[in-house]
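User:
Care to share a sequence and structure tokens?

Assistant:
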Amino acid sequence: MERKLEEWGRLLAEPILSTIACEAFELWKHAPPDVARRFSVLVDADPLPGSNEEMAKATRQGATLLLGLPWELAHDGESYLFQGVRPAQVRRRLRNREAVAPLVTEAPVRVLVVSPRPEDAHAGYIDHRVSARPLVEALEALGEKASEVTLLGPPTKPALEAELLRARDAGFPYQVVHFDGHGTYDKKRGIGALCFEHPEDSDLLARRRTTMVRADELAAVMRAHRVPLVFLEACETARAEDDPTASVAGQLLAGGVASVVAMSHSVLVETAKRFVEAFYRELMAGRRIGDAMLAGQHTGTCQ
């Protein structure tokens, strides 16, 4: 599998290097050292006026495919985009339909950690000791001046809404909501969802039921409280098939969240842990989200 990565990367880069875009790519590639390089994939899934249903469906599917491709693996014959001395930040973007508030990373950065642990037929138990606990410890290790971390309890949708409202009314709204748990994609309905705990099971020590919160429902909550960054440490939260806005990440972006970090596939817990630690270390140091993403991605290759 690993031996195939460079081959796949060359195939991704081929349409760029073999078309009229090649000249622009070379200029971008050799930009001055003090200029940060970004590789943005911007799609608009809205069909052209006069399009029939078949054309509209093809437009949405094409946009979804473009966003889902692993552009970080693009290889120009010398190196991968996100590696090397001057790595490029890969951003996936949807068309902006309303103004969004940028993330201000001045310390302290206020982070709300949502870590539901339902245990039923819909969601298997995830050990806090290998996911949520290392996250909180990593943030706290950066110091009180760098971050303020709150663990939501109970981890239910009503509690999330109540805590976001409390923080906003107090004048200290959360800048980051970090979800650590299960994500899923419903093929029949064509939309992503997150697994929260059932509000009636908050007093139970185990076997708490799952409440599925659809992507559009979560987006409405984040939009109402203008949360600028959502970190989805949950599998399949970037997954979509026929519409780029059907994933949890896509719904959040379409709903006005400025930045979303999400996963399109399942990853090892240890891999996610290393990414999270590196990401927040850079973010708390005042780095841009793109720089923090690069730092996290490097933990998966530099072992």
Remarks:
- Strands lie at 38-43, 89-94, 109-114, 147-151, 176-180, 183-186, 191-197, 210-214, 229-233, 259-261.
- The chain has two domains: 2-94, 109-298.
